Amino acid sequence: MGLLYMDWYYLILVIPAMILAFVAQFKVKSTYKKFSQVRNVRGLTGAQAAQQVLSYYGINDVTIRPIAGNLTDNYNPKTKVLSLSQANFSGSSIAAVGVACHEVGHAIQHSTDYYPIKVRSALVPVTNIGSYLGIPLALIGYFLGFHPLVSIGLMLYSLIAIFQFVTLPVEFNASNRAIKAIEEQGLLYEDEIQSARKVLSAAAMTYVASLAVSLANLLRLFLRFNNRK
Description:
three-stranded mixed β-sheet; 3 strands
């Protein structure tokens, strides 16, 4: 029956990792929703907080703009545009300030040549290749009985996990920079800082969960193909 059988590796390895990812996504959404409804005492919007932090670090060439969607916040180093979802751009919640400052953290990383983010950026092209060609090459190699091609496919697919592994220090560092900037500039009061920290910590766990899913899938594929050599 070849590959058409009960995939126990998927049940044992991948499903638990996917449950972890689901829990992490639920946690970040619920935590963000909770603190997006709590206005910070100073009444700062996310855009104002982001601009203040950028100015504090002497970064004057970054544009802040609103973007559609929910939790679609991002920083594009090529265009030097910091995009904040509408709720975080114009909202004055604790969550808005925390998320906005996190994205500024990425801008600071690029302006200071933070090494992990340079590595992550360099991995993007090869990771895209791995995500598109990894599994197809492994399957072709399997059906042709050409095991070196299977190995090449799995190596390409493993680039996804490597990329996500490198992403962890980038995201954690951006959050640490955000909290430090908030504290140093007094953007939030102490109890508000703890709330912002909860939002960013919950968001960071989604990256950990994504890595777990990728590693589980990689191990599953390795075991399946290896057992059929």
